[in-house]
Amino acid sequence: MRNDLPKVLMLGWEFPPIINGGLGVACHDLSSAMSEMANITMIVPKTSPDFKMRNMNLVGINNIDPAFFNSFPSNYRKPFPFGLHMVSSDINPYYSETSTFGIEGAHSFVNSKGQLNGFSIDSLYGGDVIGKVMHYAEITSQLAKNIDFDVIHAHDWMTMIAGMKIKEETGKPLVMHIHSLEVDRSGPENKGWVYQLEKTGMESADLLVPVSNFTANIITKYYGISKNKIQVVHNGSVPVKTFKSKRPFKEKTVLFVGRLTRQKGPEKFLDIAARVLEKDPDVRFVMAGVGDYFRPVLEKSSYKSIGNRFHLTGFLNQEKLHYLFSVSDVYCMPSVSEPFGLSAIEAAQFGIPCVISKQSGVAEVLNGSLMFDFWDDNKAAGHILNLLHDKTLRKKVVEDASINLQNISWKISAEKIMNAYSSNQFITTK
Amino acid sequence: MPSVCFYFQVHQPFRLRNYSFFDIGRSHYYEDDTKNREIMDKVSEKCYLPTNRKMLDLIRRHNGNFRISYSISGTALEQFALYRPDVLQSFIDLANTGCVEFLSETYSHSLSFIYSKPEFVRQVQKHSEVIKKYFGQEPKVFRNTELIYNNELASFIEGMGYKGIICEGVDRLLNGRTPNFIYRPVNNINVKLLLKNHRLSDDIAFRFSDKNWKEWPLTVDKFKNWVFDIAGNGETINLFMDYETFGEHQWESTGIFNFLDHLPGEILSHPDFNFKTPSEVIDAYPARDVYDAHNFTSWADTERDLSAWLSNSMQHESAKRIFSIESDIKSCNDPELLNVWERLQTSDHFYYMCTKFWSDGDVHKYFSPYDSPYEAYMYFMNSFSDLECILKNKLKKTKVKQKPKAPQEEPSVLAAVLES
Lengths: 430, 420
Hints:
heterodimer, A: alpha/beta, Rossmann fold, six-stranded parallel beta sheet, 14 helices, elongated, B: alpha/beta, 7-stranded beta/alpha barrel, three-stranded parallel beta sheet, globular
């Protein structure tokens, strides 16, 4: 650690190798890039003990010495700030295959002796997720007492309570990085517990860092928060070793990668596929991912009678995913509301032209792509057909995307965040 | 003098493996050999071998007065030959007693009658040939896959020269009448219909070990009296069931073999009752009334219709797809390709895709090798996609080789059959 660097306390939820979606990847890649410019302590609920980060103090609560918890005085009990009360509940904001159904009961984070319990966690989003979030806040705020830092940097709603609590106890500035919002996941009509938490959290933060202008607009429009404390920092990307493979079949291939949930527009992909196949039957559509739309989409594909051209692969590991990228001709991302959309960047890295919805953050940085409003499957189908049949267009889109990629890196994102820290006087620049 | 007519269905499909999207174009083998062999071994040990031994013993014990019939699908016969020649031999031994009749059906236990008459005829003929080869009989009575039946089938089957058809005695069509007579179809068609007595048949096949059934436990004495009650209002009591009832669906521990052991003797103890095979029943009794099945019926599920195989969109899509490539497959003149296609027609594939989740759902689940109907659909469609790729390549090659011919009319097997 270098003493002359600013010190950042990061609060994360997902972290490799335990990830569910883009959040874990983004947190990891961003903090790695920032670790060149700041001393970072990252606290997450769960890490693998073998997983080490260079230049970074990575704390997995599951690996904390039990003695830490025994050090709490008996009758330990701290009230939460902002009038929060614990109510046992069961919600599942992200779809997860392993999530358990049925109410597990709220986590008890204080044992019978009044000491703080250790953090046992099976799945990040399964079971009593609110209990886990509160428990995380409790432990993190205790850990923070022994950590020296200038800024609190929290990622998404799961760590917001922790961020607010630490801010209240230490008076340090709170930055909230917004990767995804309840409005994206459940639609603007849904104003439940998570929405309320996000609103309270963002109101009490000193600076909000959404991953796109698209998300910044949602923050102002649906959460009523002033533009003045928002600074957009687009996600970066990590260079990957790309390759091309020979397709084992003749048909050109259009790919979708993502959770099969409402937010990602899996049914839109199906409608687009049906439109394309009306014009060109020699195309295959492949959906990689799992989610609660898996069965409805599969059934609808048979209903539309495109079963022999529409394939669902289920959950794939990275090797299989990269193979899919290597045989695909077009990447299609029909998200209904996508804060960023890292998978489109990955597709672009593989030299695949992207057809992406305008309701996404990645559309702001990937000009080398064809865009459509997520509801306009005619337009999307037209884009796909053009890319499949017009070599000149295809070449142009791929070339433009490769130019865009040069300006997309985590180093650039990290620099922007550091600048935001200093322009807001959270840190002093030397 | 009423007769008891036993017919047992023997069928095993070639189940598909978990054939994923990544296999398309890479692996052209769709079947799960391990699972198919495993199941064949299990059912052979639990059912086929012990039941065949019992049947042989009963036929000998009653000096030929105990008579039964089987319909064995072509895919089951292939698997016997492949994995369990001992089972095949035990069926041949039964055939040699002269007390056992073998019925006709589609070779791959398929839904071909619904989708393609030429393919239906081809499969029925292929099946008859293999029955003749193994058992030395020319089938005279037809039973369609899972007793799928309607008036059209009756007229078609009569055209093919059969004298009788096995079908379900569907309550809504019998409309209060008894299934215990021979019926005839509408429109002066003379082929005779043997209707399954589903109450007595299912008492053995489904309810035998059901402890919630008020008649449990089912004794030979009780059953015998139900059969004897029919005297005076019936000529044939048709007990049709899956052969796997013995030892597989009803385990040995339920007492099913003991039941089977004593039933023929008790029935024959009544001077007015005897056993006949379907052909013998047809020769012995006249048709007493008309059985009008305008829509398709079957013996499956509580609906007794096609919904076990063709009710949701996945089933319709996959079945439609497999028959859509018929003319391309046949134009290749490649026996191996034809075999692959024929096996994909097996009705079980569509049965596994069924999403009806009532008490019938349990039965579907029991038989399915997959975790869900959705998986069954995916593996089937992926396999189909690969077959489609192979077919495309083949057709391309043959087109390059041969000069394009003037489009030929497909030889109408159907017309030929109906003319004769």
